[in-house]
Amino acid sequence: MKAILCILVLASSSLALTVRDQFTQFQSEHGKEYCCEEEESLRLEVFTSNLKKIEEHNETPGKTWTMAVNQFADLTEEEFKTDVLGGYIKTPQSGNHPTGAKVSVADLPTNVDWREAGVMTDPKNQGSCGSCWAFATVEQIESYAAINNVTLTKLSAQEITTCTPNPMHCGGTGGCKGSIPQLAYNYVQLFGLATNKDYPYLSGISGITGNCKYDLERRTPVVGITGYNTIPANDMEATLQHLATVGPLAVAGDATPWQFYSHGVFTGCNYANNIALNHAIQMVGYGTDETDGDYWLVRNSWGANWGEHGYIRLQREAELTCGTDSTPMDGTACVGGPGTDSQHVCGMCGILYDSSYPLGAKEWGLP
Question: Which residues are catalytic?
C-alpha cells in the first residue's frame, strides 16, 4: 500500500512539474513577464486551466480543428474578449450591392486564395491594442493597391490607429479602444496613407493609441483611395463572387472561440448561442479540404505564430446558416445612432454579416 501511495505521489508531482515546465517554456517563447509572485501564480493557474481545455478538445473524436498553446494561454476567456477583441462594429449603412454583372456561383472557381496572386503582405500582429479594425483596413488597401499594379508595400496601421477620428464612438472610443474600417477608409480617402517604415506601429507594444503625427512636411502618403463599398449582409453568393472576381474583403466575426485555434477547419461557433461580432479580419479566399469540407480562408492580425501561419479556415456551409447577435449595442452601433436589440448574422461566427472593400486604390497624388 505504501509503495502504491509513493507511486501516486510521484506521478502527481511529475504531472505538476510537466505543467510548470510548459508554463516556463510558454513564458520564454512569448516574452511573458509578470509584476510579482502573486501575478505569476495567478497566470499559472489560468494557464493550467487552459491547458486542460486544449487537451480535452484535442482528445475529443470527430473534431475538424485542433487547439494549441499560444500567446493567449495565460488569459481567461473574459480577459481575452476584453483585452484582445472588442475593436470592431457593424455599421447600419452597410448593404450596398457590389458593382458588376451577376455571375453564377457554378461558374466560379472551386478554390480562391489571394495569397497566390502576390497581393498580400506577411501576417501582422496588432499586439496589446484593440486595433483590429485598423489592420483589416490596412491589409485591404495594401491588397487592392497591389491588384491595381501599385507596388506591394507594407502600409501604416499606426497612422490609422492614431489619426482616424471617432467622434460618435462607433465600435468603441477610437484607437486601441476600437473603431470601424469604414471610418478608416474615410480617413485614407482624405489624407492618403504612409508606409509602415515612415510611420511604424508602436501601439502593439505600449497598448496606447498615441497622438497623431500627421504632418505633410515629415510624412509622405504613398497610397490613396476614392472611397469604399460593401457587400449585402449575409449574401453568400455575392461574397463568393467578390472573392473570385474582385479581391479580398474586410469582414466581422465572433473571434471569442478562436483563442487557442491551431489548424484545421474551424466549427467552434455555435449558432444557438449569441454570436457577438467583436473582431475585424480579412477574408482572402475560400476552398475545400479533402477531409474536413468547405471553408472560408481568413487572415487574422495576431501574428504568424497563431493559427495556420496567421490564418484560420472557417467552415463554409453549403446552405446559408444563421444565428443571432443578441448584444449588438455592445459593439455594433454608434452612440446615439440607429440600433436594434439583435442582428441576424450568417456564416460561421457571423462572418457573412458585414463585408467592405476600398475603391480606387492608387498611388497618392494620381488622378
Answer: 132, 279, 300
